[in-house]
Design goal:
Elements lengths: L7 H12 L18 E8 L9 E8 L6 E9 L5 E6 L6 E5 L7 E12 L1 E10 L9 E9 L8 E9 L14 H8 L33 H11 L45 H11 L20 E6 L7 E4 L3 E6 L1 E4 L4 E4 L4 E4 L7 E4 L4 E5 L6 E5 L11 E4 L35 E2 L7 E2 L9 E9 L3 E4 L2 E3 L2 E4 L6 E8 L6 E4 L5 E9 L4 E4 L5 E9 L13 E4 L14 E8 L11 E6 L5 E3 L2 E11 L2 H8 L4 E3 L2 E7 L27 H7 L4 E3 L9 E3 L7 E4 L54
Parallel strand pairs: 1-9, 10-12, 11-14, 12-15, 13-16, 14-17, 15-18, 16-19, 17-22, 18-22, 19-25, 22-26, 25-27, 26-28, 27-29, 28-30, 29-31, 30-32, 31-33, 32-34, 32-35, 33-35, 34-36, 35-37, 37-38
Antiparallel strand pairs: 1-2, 2-7, 3-6, 3-8, 4-7, 5-6, 20-21, 23-24, 39-40
Helix pairs in contact: 2-3, 3-4
Length: about 750
């Protein structure tokens, strides 16, 4: 017999969701406040001794005043050896979104919510008994709970145990309900949505918080989408740009808490996540309850700037100037910020190098500064005019006064070019080394000030930069030359460049949260004694670059000469890198993930590197000897889909110099494979699909998801790590740049960075 259940409160929220009226509510008024912030929760079970094959109902019940609780989210644990999950049945006033992926191991993750309040039975589950003895296995583990009616104050859940109630009827309509089932239940028939392709966080004019489906409405489709993602049924990124399933969950869906300046979604600890507070806030707005964030326009989603200000090559910046987001600043040639000058860019500002100028670029010379502080919602973008393609302009160059190993302390010969008004003299470098950029017309750099401050780059995208002046003389997407440790490089992307993504010519600057994606040459290129600490990097090689003569790497690391007796050597400390190479069999230019040369001593920790013909290349005896003395280090790093650790036969290809470090070639030195086999925590995983067992969607160029999968037994698959806190970096319990997949957790790169235009076109 089918049980009869009346759900008048569900009908109320359905009607309100459909027409957006607060008058539909039969709950307490907005001004009422609960008498307590601790709510008792009990589990009701229909039968204590059901026989094998019989159905058992389990209800989650809140003993609370109406209108007190708006959402609970947690896990119902049960004895999977004695019970099989059948499905759920709607009950009371609540919408209950269930993730049953761990049902076979005895856990259901779910969130139950109603913007006007939930009380009494808020979720009803049905199980099939596999035999007696299941009664003691039920347990509720709370994740979060908060109030109703726009009251997002936290509520504590106090579990009061399990009771057995023969009056709890077992519904016969229980099923595994999907998002579509809930949408059909609460949304009027025929509610349409726009078919717009979107990437997470992409610009949509006038997009409001809560409109995750990008259809111009905030309704049941939106809060059901947020709820399903929060409990882990749907993904934040993968699939969110599929036709007919377009969503923006990482910005539009992340509406709680509301922070100063109208910014939404950043937790107090700086993280971002979707949870019950977010979907109850979206539901509140959808039914007309007050919300401070949901329904408001997302910052940076107003009309794009059209007023264009021309900056000519002759307009050298010698004082403090400001550029604002209501203008587009066009660089008609090389624009220089001279010694003593500074440029401040407002969040959301766009700068475009003129494609027809050869080259057009922004040069911050030694003594000049740039303060480009974007935000998650309004990144600052440096790009070119017109059609976007690698090399359509020449990128950003920043010079500083930090030390370098190569150059001259005297009068250079030939003379330095007079960039920014005059040529440098020895006093400009304080008597330390200085030199001019390799492209010939690039600024001079170097000095005696390790703590030199060239400004700030934060939430900045530099795209399609780079210019080949002559063979081995190039401008890069982003060049940091002798930049000092007083400079901040944080949340920066270099995308689709013609040469390197980021190149460091000496200096001491440290970097965090950097993407180097789709660049034609190296992702991280360092030389001239470069140091600093570098954590949370993603390097994604240009998979459309199949030239056999480019010698592209994820890392290219050199000293200025093959000497191990220099006062200091190139020795960056790098941790938590996620590196994705191109197809190792077709793309001959990606012969090795890391090339180390001329006695350089990089130290790489806690990283994941995928998709190269070999792991590393040691190019000369000085480097092999340095490895033998333990100066460079590779620790707790996983290599997947790497055909060889270091065999000269793999690099004996046209246009490449063969490695000189095999033990049989240089007596007493350490070769690549020998060194890696001695590295602490080194792991090699063979197979073209090995990375898919570690990262969620690493090789998806259009909507990549670089989060790590959780191991079935709990904890990251690649969990053995080295402590890096002694070097000023952050200790985390995982390898790679992004933490493990966690329901609702938004990765740091999502929402502000850009991805490939298509699978093979950056």
């Amino acid at each position: 017999m089918k049980s009869l259940r009346t759900i008048p409160k569900m009908a109320t929220v359905v009607a309100c969701a459909a027409i957006g009226l607060t008058a539909c509510s039969d709950e307490p008024t907005i001004g009422e406040r609960p008498s307590s912030r601790t709510v008792p929760l009990a589990l009701e079970v229909s039968s204590q001794h059901a026989k094998a094959g019989e159905l058992v109902a389990v209800a989650v019940k809140l003993d609370v005043q109406p209108g007190t609780a708006g959402v609970i989210q947690g896990n119902l644990e049960f004895d999977a050896a004695r019970l099989r999950y059948v499905g759920q049945s709607p009950v009371g006033s609540a919408i209950a979104i269930v993730n049953a992926k761990r049902a076979s191991s005895g856990a259901l993750t779910f969130g139950a919510f109603n913007p006007n309040g939930i009380d009494g039975r808020v979720a009803l589950f049905v199980f099939e008994s596999r035999g007696d003895g299941y009664a003691s296995g039920f347990r509720y583990v709370s994740d979060m709970a908060s109030g109703a009616k726009g009251d997002h104050r936290k509520i504590s859940i106090r579990t009061v145990g399990t009771t057995f109630n023969s009056g709890l009827l077992v519904p016969t309509d229980a099923s595994v309900m999907t998002a579509a089932d809930w949408s059909a239940r609460i949304m009027p028939a025929g509610a349409g949505k726009a078919a717009i392709a979107a990437r997470p966080g992409e610009y949509r004019e006038n997009l409001r918080y809560g409109d995750v489906t990008l259809d111009g409405l905030v309704n049941g489709d939106d809060y059901i989408a947020v709820a399903n993602t929060a409990v882990g049924n749907d993904q934040l990124i993968i699939g969110t740009d599929d036709p007919g399933n377009d969503k923006d969950l990482v910005i539009a869906g992340n509406v709680f808490p509301t922070n100063s300046g109208g910014v939404c979604g950043n937790e107090t600890d700086g993280t971002r996540r979707l949870d019950g507070d977010d979907y109850i806030a979206v539901a509140n707005f959808a039914v007309g309850n007050p919300e401070t964030c949901a329904g408001t326009q997302i910052l940076g989603r107003g009309p794009l700037a059209t007023n264009r200000i021309q900056i000519n090559a002759a307009d050298t910046i010698r004082t403090a100037v400001s550029w604002t987001r209501n203008n587009v600043y066009q660089l008609n040639g090389i624009v220089v910020v001279a010694d003593g000058g500074s440029i401040t860019l407002e969040a959301g500002t766009r700068v475009e190098g003129l494609t027809q100028a050869a080259p057009s670029a922004l040069f911050i010379t030694r003594g000049g500064q740039i303060f480009a502080e974007g935000t998650l919602e309004r990144p600052i973008v440096f790009t070119c005019t017109g059609a976007k393609q690698p090399g359509c302009w020449s990128g950003v160059w920043i010079s500083g006064k930090a030390p370098i190993t190569a150059g001259t302390t005297g009068n250079p010969s030939p003379a330095f070019p007079a960039i920014g008004g005059r040529a440098p003299v020895p006093a400009d470098a304080g008597g330390c080394n200085q030199r001019v950029g390799e492209a010939g017309n690039a600024p001079f750099f170097g000095g005696c000030t390790p703590t030199d401050n060239s400004g700030i780059l934060r939430y900045v995208v530099v795209e399609y930069g780079g210019f080949v002046v002559a063979p081995n003389r190039e401008l890069n997407n982003l060049t940091l030359a002798a930049v000092g440790s007083g400079t901040i490089i944080d949340h920066v992307q270099a995308h689709g460049g013609l040469d390197d993504g980021v190149e460091f010519f000496g200096g001491t600057v440290s970097t965090r949260y950097v993407l180097s994606t789709g660049n034609n040459d190296d992702g991280f290129d360092a030389d001239f004694g470069f140091s600093g600490t570098h954590q949370f990097w993603i390097i994604q090689q240009d998979q459309g670059n199949v030239s056999s003569t480019d010698d592209s790497r994820a890392f290219e690391i050199d000293n200025s000469s093959a000497s191990t007796t220099l006062t200091f050597r190139t020795s960056p400390r790098m941790s938590n890198f996620t590196v994705l190479g191109a197809n190792v069999t077709a793309d001959l230019n990606s012969t090795a993930s890391m090339m180390i040369r001329t006695g350089a001593g990089p130290k790489l920790y806690n990283s994941i590197i995928d998709g190269y013909r070999r792991a590393i290349t040691l190019r000369d005896a000085a480097t092999c000897n340095a490895f033998a003395t333990g100066v460079p280090e590779i620790r707790s790093t996983t290599f997947t889909d790497v055909l060889a650790l270091g065999s000269s036969v793999d690099e004996a290809l046209p246009g490449f110099a063969a490695p000189q470090c095999a033990p049989a070639t240089v007596a007493g030195t350490v070769g690549e494979a020998e060194f890696l086999s001695l590295s602490n925590g080194f792991r090699q995983v063979a197979g073209a699909g090995a990375i898919d067992g570690i990262l969620f969607g690493a090789r998806n160029n259009v909507t990549p998801d670089w989060r790590m999968r959780d191991a079935v037994a709990g904890g990251p698959i690649e969990g053995a790590t080295e402590s890096v806190s002694a070097f000023g970096m952050t200790d985390v319990a995982y390898r790679g740049a992004v933490g493990p997949l966690n329901n609702g957790a938004i990765p740091w790169y999502a929402g502000w960075s850009r991805s490939f235009t298509s699978t093979l076109v950056p």
